[in-house]
């Protein structure tokens, strides 16, 4: 029987988390045969093969490839998928029992790009940087649910999203030159096809990530780099304007000042990285969680902005581009600063 849904999961050296998500999928409230799971092992060297060799009570398709990144891993899985509808999740999430059903119902009501909600774990003590990441994403979800803004490709997170397979093929699948933000980049191409983006907050996964502090900081830098790749090489001209507007109008004075001092200056950024890492760990260790979260915000945004600066060519190019974008938006850099 051809399944209704193909659940696509890329994985790399996360055997324990992969076992958790594959086991939890046994609890889906859909009828037998509704879904298959397609996992691409992207060159893992841990116990992933053993995890994939177990019987979970549903069809499990396993693909093994040399390490090539999440974009290539998802592409391989989509190409093997048997269903018309693809649901993307990550190996570090725990799906709600009705996740598959919610995506199917939403796609039947209005086909397009469905974005589900990621929750923070209730009963697990997360590292403060993981909590900061969860709070940041939750704020976006809450604003979409309240109608403050509609979902865009910027919210196309493949930890919980669904798209028809034919639309993914039409869009050209994921760009394998991207090692981060490959989902957002594909989201723009899905939007180019005229597909509507909808947020369905009832489609839920819990995101319990093993990301380290160094990996989290590196993620900020990768997002900054690939945002400029999308702006410069993929024709996404709105991206630089978004960066300028958000920095000048919605970032706190402390970040604005720190960016003026450090961004584009290697020695200053090295110090900022060292101080940020120490502040995050130190404040959290003494129980000052709120202050540690503020340190996370400052550090992440500095890492991101410095990567944008580097990708643009340096301080002169970065600040000049920020000024030009604000002028084009007809907004004063001073308006709304510190929000």
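Q: What amino acid sequence fits the structure above?
A:
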């Amino acid at each position: 029987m051809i399944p209704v849904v193909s659940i696509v999961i890329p994985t790399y050296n996360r055997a324990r988390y992969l076992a958790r998500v594959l086991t939890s999928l046994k609890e889906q409230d859909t009828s037998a045969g509704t879904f298959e799971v397609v996992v691409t092992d992207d060159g893992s060297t841990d116990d992933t093969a053993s995890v994939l060799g177990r019987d979970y009570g549903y069809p499990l398709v396993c693909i093994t490839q040399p390490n090539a990144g999440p974009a290539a891993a998802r592409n391989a899985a989509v190409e093997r998928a048997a269903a018309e509808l693809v649901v993307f999740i990550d190996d570090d999430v725990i799906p709600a029992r009705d996740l598959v059903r919610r995506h199917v119902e939403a796609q039947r009501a209005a086909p397009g790009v469905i974005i589900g909600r990621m929750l923070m774990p209730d009963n697990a003590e997360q590292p403060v940087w993981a909590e900061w990441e969860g709070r940041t994403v939750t704020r976006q979800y809450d604003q979409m649910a309240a109608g403050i803004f509609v979902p865009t490709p910027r919210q196309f997170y493949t930890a919980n999203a669904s798209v028809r397979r034919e639309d993914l093929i039409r869009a050209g699948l994921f760009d394998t030159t991207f090692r981060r933000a490959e989902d957002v980049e594909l989201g723009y191409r899905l939007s180019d096809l005229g597909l509507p983006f909808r947020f369905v907050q009832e489609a839920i996964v819990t995101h319990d990530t093993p990301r380290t502090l160094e990996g989290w900081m590196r993620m900020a830098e990768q997002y900054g780099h690939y945002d400029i790749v999308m702006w410069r090489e993929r024709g996404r001209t709105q991206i630089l304007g978004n960066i300028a507007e958000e920095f000048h109008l919605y970032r706190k004075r402390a970040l604005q000042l720190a960016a003026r001092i450090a961004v584009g200056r290697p020695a200053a950024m090295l110090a900022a990285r060292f101080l940020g890492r120490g502040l995050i760990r130190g404040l959290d260790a003494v129980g000052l969680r709120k202050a540690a979260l503020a340190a996370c915000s400052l550090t992440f945004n500095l890492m991101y902005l410095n990567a944008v600066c580097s990708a643009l060519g340096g301080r002169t190019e970065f600040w000049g581009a920020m000024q030009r974008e604000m002028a084009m938006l007809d907004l004063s850099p001073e308006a709304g600063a510190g929000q």
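Q: And what stands out in the fold?
A: Residues 333-339 have pLDDT under 50 and may be disordered.
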